[in-house]
Amino acid sequence: KIEDDTLSLRLFLSRQEAETTHVQGIRRLYEHGFPDLFKAVKKEIRSTGDLKRIAMYFGGPAAFQNAVYICITRHLFEKNLRTRAAFESYIQKLRPTLFQQTQDLINDIQAVGRAYAECFSLIQALSLKHQARPQASRILADLFEGLKNLVPSHFLSLYAIQRIQHLPRYVDCLRIRAQRGADNPAKESEKAKKISRFEHHLATQVAGLSENTSPEKAEKVEDFFWLLEEYKISVFAQELKTAVKVSAKRLEKELHTLSTLI
Q1: What's the farthest any 2 CA atoms get from each other in the chain?
Q2: Confidence category of residue 138, pLDDT binned at 50, 70, 90
Q3: 38 is in which domain, residue-wise?
C-alpha cells in the first residue's frame, strides 16, 4: 500500500481492494526504479499541441495534462505482477514500445477531445439558431446535458482506457442526434422513447449502488451503461456501427440478470 512516499505491506479484507492497491504499488515501484520512462511519457504529453487545444473543455491545460499523464502511466504501469521475474520481464518488453504506446494512447485521448469539441460547438450553434422552437431547444438541452454526463471533465480518471477508446463513437452519436433532432424534433422524440425506459432502469441501478454492493453487480451495472450507449448508436446513428451486437431484447436480459444480483 502507498503511504506518502513509502510502500507498505498490508492485509485487506476485500480481494478487490487488495488487487487495486497492489497494482498501484507496482506502478510506484516502477516510478522509483525507472524514472526515465515516466519522464519520457510526460515529455510526449507536454509536446503534443492538440492536447492543449482541447484542454479548455476539461479543466484547463495544467489539470488536463496531469490527468493525461496519470491515465497513461496507470495504464502502462499498474500491472498485477507477483514475482520479481515478472516485474523485470514486463519492463524489458515495455521499454522499446513505450514511445509508440504513449503516442497511441495520446491519440485515443485526442480523438475524444476532438469529438467532444465538435459536438459541443454544434449543439451551441443549433441551440442559438433554434431558440424560438421549444421542442428543438428542449432536445438540444437534453443532448448537451448528456454530453457533459458522458464525458465529464474527469473522464480520464473515471473510465479505463479500453472504454475511453469507444467514447468518440458515442459522442458522434450525440452530435448526429443533435443535428437530426433540430431538423426533425418529432422523429428524434419518437426514437428517444426506445431508450428512455432503459435509461430509467439504469438510473435506478446506479442510485442503488453502495459500499455493500457486490463487485460483480457493480461491474454489471457499468457494463449495462456501455451496452446502452451501443444501443443508442443502433437506434440513432447506425452509420457509426456498433462494437457489439445489441438489441432491446439483450438489454432486457441484462436487466433481468442485474435484478438477481446483490
Answers
A1: 67
A2: very high
A3: 2-183
